[in-house]
Specification:
13 helices; mainly alpha; 1% strand; Vanadium-containing Chloroperoxidase, domain 1; 332 residues; two-stranded antiparallel ribbon; 45% helix
């Protein structure tokens, strides 16, 4: 009897994961789906807190950041690395680290120089109103930090150690906080407006200099600040002589701030002289969809700081709800 030969079945080779592929991290997660991570306990409280101005955050939840695999994101990493060259100057390092580690005190000192009688009370109240907006947006988008994207793309970027950069990247909280701070104080102390705007710009620039934020994080932070200060309820609280006097005290206006000059500490920043303050400078070879996923105003380079309607900014200023605020009326 002849025995038949049986052929063994050919087994398919096991799948190979290539950790170096440019479109994925560890070959599993698409690069555009990467997220910063979970908020810590304190951040989670801010996210879940019902604030008086939460509707402003709702308005800004359709402004996506640039894709991680696009050319614009890579150019942003280049800009960050170039900005970090300013760390060769000791005073730049010192000021940038102060912004990072001690922002509330830096703002309080600046407010006191302007003439604010109770600067720390003022800063605490301002942050109580705007920080929940910032944190809700940060973890709504949950954007990775520049060093995380640089790691995936094998891009050489080593940020400075940070005390405050332990949250999602988009928008830049420092930028929003300082821009709102500068705008409120400029209303109360118009003689210090130019210096306050330069101060806010230095704070924003320091986040790139330390390697902690993408340029588009700062741009979105400025746009968010503009939406906040144009909100009718926010204006009613912070941009009226009676209300601002109650929170700041009635100390007479001082002379322009000492020690804050356009190039203090080696910063090389644009001159923020209103009303010719420029908006985001987008490069012509990128469409606005590539940069932000939504158009911003390119016909008018001036960002309106005079509390008028500014419908060109991200499609308009948020409108306050007609129903009572879940957390009660604006305090103050």
């Amino acid at each position: 009897m002849t025995r038949k030969r049986q052929r063994s079945k050919t087994q398919a080779p096991p799948p190979v994961i290539n950790p170096a592929t440019p479109k994925t991290k560890y070959g599993l997660i698409p690069i555009n789906n990467l997220t910063y991570g979970n908020p810590n306990a304190a951040q989670d409280l801010l996210i879940r807190e019902v604030g008086n101005f939460d509707y402003i955050a709702n308005h800004y939840m359709d402004k996506p950041y640039p894709n991680n695999d696009g050319s614009y994101a890579k150019e942003e990493l280049e800009k960050i690395r170039n900005s970090m060259q300013k760390l060769q100057h000791d005073k730049v390092v010192e000021l940038s680290i102060r912004f990072d580690e001690d922002l509330e005190n830096v703002l309080a000192e600046t407010a006191e120089k302007c003439g604010v009688e109770n600067p720390r009370v003022f800063i605490k109240e301002l942050f109580k109103d705007i920080n929940p907006i910032i944190m809700k947006l940060k973890f709504f988008y949950n954007r990775i930090r520049p060093f995380q994207l640089a790691n995936v793309l094998s891009f050489p970027l080593n940020p400075m150690p940070s005390v405050s950069a332990h949250s999602a990247s988009y928008p830049s909280g420092h930028t929003t906080q300082c821009q709102v701070f500068a705008s409120v104080l400029s209303f109360r102390y118009p003689g210090n407006e130019d210096m306050l705007q330069k101060f806010a710009e230095k704070c924003s620039a320091s986040r790139l200099i330390l390697g902690l934020h993408f340029p588009s994080d700062s741009v979105f932070g400025k746009q968010l600040a503009q939406g906040i200060i144009n909100d009718e309820n926010f204006k009613a609280k912070y941009f009226s002589a009676q209300k601002i006097g109650e929170s700041m005290g009635n100390k007479p206006q001082n002379e322009p701030l000492d020690g804050i000059t356009p190039r203090q500490g080696g910063f090389d920043l644009p001159q923020f002289n209103k009303p010719e303050r420029p908006s985001m400078n987008t490069q012509t070879h990128h469409s606005e969809e590539d940069i932000f996923g939504g158009a911003i105003n390119t016909n008018n380079e001036n960002i309106n700081q005079n509390m008028e309607d500014d419908s060109g900014i991200f499609g308009g200023i948020p409108v306050a709800p007609t129903t009572p605020f879940p957390g009660g009326p604006p305090r103050g």
